[in-house]
Design goal:
The complex is a heterodimer of chains A (about 550) and B (about 260). Chain A starts with a strand and ends in a 12-residue tail after the last helix. Chain A is elongated, with a radius of gyration of 27 Å. Mean pLDDT of chain A is about 85; it is low at about 490, about 495-505 and about 535-545. In chain A, the strands form two sheets. Chain A has a seven-stranded parallel sheet with strand order 4-5-3-6-7-2-8, sandwiched between helices. Chain A has helices spanning about 10-20, 30-40, 50-55, 60-75, 90-100, 120-130, 140-145, 150-155, 160-165, 185-190, 210-220, 230-235, 240-250, 280-295, 300-310, 315-325, 330-345, 350-360, 370-385, 400-410, 440-450, 470-480, 495-500, 505-515, 520-535, and strands at about 5-10, 80, 110-115, 135, 145-150, 170-175, 200, 255, 270-275, 365-370, 390, 415-420, 430-435, 460-470. In chain A, α4 (about 60-75) packs across α5 and α16 packs antiparallel against α19 (about 370-385). In chain A, β13, α21 (about 440-450) and β14 (about 460-470) form a beta-alpha-beta unit. By secondary structure, chain A is of the alpha/beta class. Chain A has three domains: about 60-260, Rossmann fold (3-Layer(aba) Sandwich), CATH 3.40.50.10810; about 270-275 and about 350-490, P-loop containing nucleotide triphosphate hydrolases (Rossmann fold), CATH 3.40.50.300; about 280-345, no CATH class. Chain B has about 260 residues and is of the alpha/beta class. Chain B folds into three domains: about 5-95, no CATH class; about 100-195 and about 245-260, no CATH class; about 200-240. The mean pLDDT of chain B is about 90. Chains A and B meet through β1, α1 and α2 of A and α1, α4, β5, β6 and β7 of B. Chain B: InterPro entries: YqhG (IPR024562).
């Protein structure tokens, strides 16, 4: 064992200068005050958290305190913070960062978040934690500021990349870290190439589709903790090994769930609206289904996509049809009849229903849709009826996202968001949400709901799901979502399900199930899935904090 | 640090710094700053620069502080342990109170000798992936070389003044103050090397565990690669046990013989 011992010699210089110049000498009072300041600042013990004593105005939940303590004491400052959406991962990460800064172990820190959250992170660190974080806007910020918040996209690009690599960061925090699930991406390579003395990865969905994703996340923090990739892949398929992996994962991951925190949550009220299509819309949907007969190499995937789009808006459907035509997946002859039928469609029954709901209500409402074309259509449609709305989507830059959120908060009654815009957006000030159409991965639905149903939400939240009668949309709502009670709050053990389906993407499973030969078969397959999701026990004790 | 302590600390700091305390009824503290403190604490270099150029009358600001955490008054600045303002003041005190030379006051009517001491306060930080601080305070008598611990505590009841009192002469030191500093350094090093550092053993164990995992992750042929070296360096930085010694403040203290004997 080797211990580095160092003396800081600054004081000796000051003392020598004072001896030579006969002063200036401090009064006894100032001398004592200087010593007392050190007494107050000194950290008396290796264990425990000192940060909360520095933050008397921050009210912490037990699970947040306990999480920070575990990260510092048991995980040596390298951890995946994987609380379910809305439990305050930012607070936990801020607390850990503060703890290390007070203890003098972290001076320079880098926070990488989605562009839309850069300002929010900066603000929270400054206001809640008194950490002088600076958003990266100018190049000089990298080397002149100690705590920098930037988007991953900026940091990994030239000329920033080289400057970032040179910075001696003591801690790196990565928000929405599930973006690093794929080891073959530029993001992954970039993060891997940064030196990580202390590191926090924040994500509500450490596993979205397959367990390898978790392997890649853990390998960023602690390479070798789950072995090497080959042995890991060979191992996790066996039941016993899978339990070993769970145990190992617990050593680097904290996952608090809504139902094992002492947070009192407001209620979720859910309503499902069945919408009857107009005759013209029905004809359009049927024509899409009929494509299966005429287009022989139309895969289940493409057909399902088209069906779902037909349930959303003819605009959404039109975009995909025209793309498929360009790519030669559909021929002119196949498309023309469909387009003729589409041109007959004059009203969107679902949009009309949504309009009625909005007109009958005074409440701020966020509408989620899967499709950009639908988003544009809805915005236009609502404007026709004097309802102002703001769009929100992934492609907006940071400033625009902040601005849109602010407009929605302060001025405009409706926000229309696409999936890409869903992550990390905090809308606690709103408690009404409309799912205009539904994603097929329950984790993503949970992320949507998490935008409004999170810590800080003081009112019950109201969720309205729209589904068109006798379509794939209604089937997925009835066969999957209603059965797992996800809208009511207890979403079961989604990540366990996904782990058990290791290797097989859930969305693919759902699509395949719906694509089954008979309705009975589809029901059976989805029933199987919902049964798994509803299991009360948690055999693997996945990352439960105890 | 309790809010009442914060209030007292602030009041003492501003008084010692030469500001005028206008009101001090906890939780409220109003002070009229002087130029030095305004320059240091109020962050308005342009104002002072402008004043210097134009030769106007300086007008240092007033500060309205409150240690009441519930206060919502806009005109008041809330201060608590952990707030940037208090830490700014801590830093200012550390700077202003770094070195001193003080004499023990006495009522003797005949010539009284005062003996020279070097006092030195030190922070010892034990760091690895965690950290703990230990404060030590030493005094070295500069004639006999006698060295004592907890010097600050012994000084605190004494009346110490900045100028040499009447009927007083100081004894010349035989040991240079800077040599006394070196003695304390050596004493500390010996002391540290004689200790059992279980914390460092623990950290080293964790470091070795993580390094062996790293070796499992990288094939033998990759072990010279940049990626491997980078990870290895990160693990070293995460756990490497280190002890940092920082001199907080210190100075010369001229004390009466009988006081010295009590020390």
């Amino acid at each position: 064992m080797h211990i580095d011992i160092s003396f800081s010699t600054d004081w000796e210089e000051t003392f020598k200068a004072a001896l030579d110049n006969e002063g200036p000498w401090a009064s006894w009072e100032m001398f004592s005050l200087a010593y007392e300041a050190e007494e107050h600042k000194a950290v008396p013990s290796f264990d425990g958290l000192v940060a909360p004593t520095h933050l008397p105005e921050l009210s912490l939940y037990d699970h947040q305190w306990e999480t920070a303590r575990r990260v510092v004491e048991d995980m040596n400052g390298k951890a995946i913070l994987a609380d379910e959406v809305g439990l305050g991962k930012t607070i936990e990460a801020g607390l850990v960062l503060k703890e290390y800064m007070i203890r003098g172990l972290v001076k320079k820190a880098l926070i990488l978040s989605p562009a839309s959250l850069v300002n929010q992170w900066t603000q929270e660190l400054n206001e809640k934690f008194y950490i002088p974080a600076v958003p990266q806007k100018k190049t000089y910020v990298w080397d002149q500021c100690d705590v920098v918040v930037a988007s991953m996209d900026t940091a990994k690009r030239a000329p920033h990349r080289d400057i970032v690599m040179e910075q001696p960061y003591d801690m790196i925090i990565i928000d929405e870290a599930h973006k690093l699930k794929n080891a073959n991406t530029k993001n992954y390579a970039f993060i891997k190439s940064l030196k990580k003395r202390f590191c926090l990865l924040c994500t509500a969905t450490p596993v979205q589709n397959r367990i390898e994703e978790l392997f890649h996340l853990v390998s960023i923090l602690k390479p070798g903790h789950l072995g090497d990739e080959r042995s890991f892949k060979a191992q996790y398929k066996h039941e016993q090994a899978s339990e070993d992996i769970q145990a190992l994962v617990q050593n680097v991951m904290v996952r608090n769930r809504r139902d094992n925190t002492n947070v009192t949550w407001t209620k979720r009220h859910v309503e499902n609206y069945s919408v009857e299509q107009t005759e013209e819309e029905r004809a359009m949907y049927d024509a899409v289904c009929d494509l299966k007969q005429t287009v022989h190499d139309l895969h289940g995937f493409s057909l399902t996509t088209l069906q779902r789009e037909a349930c959303s808006s003819k605009e959404a459907l039109g975009v995909t049809i025209s793309n498929m035509l360009k790519k030669g997946m559909l021929s002119e002859e196949q498309v023309t009849p469909l387009v003729t039928i589409m041109n007959q469609v004059k009203t969107n029954a679902k949009a009309e229903q949504v309009l009625k709901q909005l007109q009958a209500s005074e409440e701020k409402t966020v509408i989620f849709t899967e499709y950009r074309a639908t988003q544009l259509y809805l915005q236009w449609f609502l404007a026709q009826h004097k309802i102002r709305s703001v769009p929100f989507r992934g492609g907006f830059n940071r400033g625009k996202k902040d601005y849109m959120r602010m407009l929605f908060r302060d001025h405009v009654p409706v926000m229309i968001a696409t999936e890409a815009g869903g992550e990390g957006l905090n809308l606690q000030f709103c408690h009404h949400m409309i799912n205009y159409d539904l994603p097929w991965n329950p984790m993503r639905v949970e992320q949507r709901i998490g935008r409004i149903h999170r810590l800080g939400q003081e009112q019950d939240v109201h969720i309205t799901n729209y589904a068109i009668d006798n379509t794939v949309e209604q089937r997925i709502l009835h066969l999957l979502y209603e059965k797992i009670n996800m809208f009511e709050g207890l979403i079961g053990r989604l990540d366990d399900i996904l782990e058990r389906y290791s290797g097989q993407a859930l969305e693919k499973y759902v699509e395949d199930a719906l694509d089954s030969g008979t309705e009975g078969e589809a029901r059976l397959k989805l029933h199987h899935l919902t049964e798994l999701m509803n299991q009360e026990d948690d055999p693997y004790e996945t990352g439960r904090s105890s | 640090m309790k809010q009442a302590e914060v209030h007292n600390y602030l009041r003492r700091f501003f008084q010692a710094g030469g500001a005028e305390v206008l009101q001090s009824t906890p939780p409220k503290l109003d002070v009229q700053l002087n130029k030095t403190l305004d320059l240091e604490l109020m962050n308005r270099p342009f104002y002072w620069h402008y004043l210097e150029k134009t030769g106007g009358d300086p007008n240092p600001l007033k500060m309205h502080l409150s240690t009441n955490m519930q206060s919502t008054a806009k005109a008041e600045e809330k201060v608590h342990f952990g707030s940037p303002r208090l830490h700014q003041i801590f830093a200012s005190a550390a700077d202003k109170g770094a070195v001193t030379r003080l004499y023990e006051q006495h009522d003797e009517q005949s010539q009284t000798p005062l003996y020279p001491w070097l006092g030195l306060n030190i922070r010892i930080s034990y760091t690895c992936h965690r950290r703990r601080d230990d404060l030590r305070s030493f005094g070295v008598q500069l004639i006999s070389g006698e060295t004592i611990d907890a010097f600050m505590k012994r000084l605190s009841p004494l009346p110490l003044v900045p100028a040499i009192p009447d009927y007083t002469f100081t004894m010349a030191h035989l040991i240079q103050p800077t040599s006394a500093v070196q003695r304390i350094k050596k004493y500390l090093l010996d002391d540290i090397q004689g200790q059992k550092h279980t914390w460092a053993n623990e950290a080293t164990k964790r470091m070795e565990e993580d390094l062996s995992l790293l070796d499992r992750f990288y094939d033998e042929r990759d072990e010279g690669s940049d990626a491997y070296m980078l990870e290895k360096e990160a693990i070293h930085q995460q756990y490497q046990p280190a002890i940092e010694l920082t001199f907080i403040n210190g100075g010369l203290f001229y004390l009466r013989k009988d006081t010295g004997a009590h020390l």
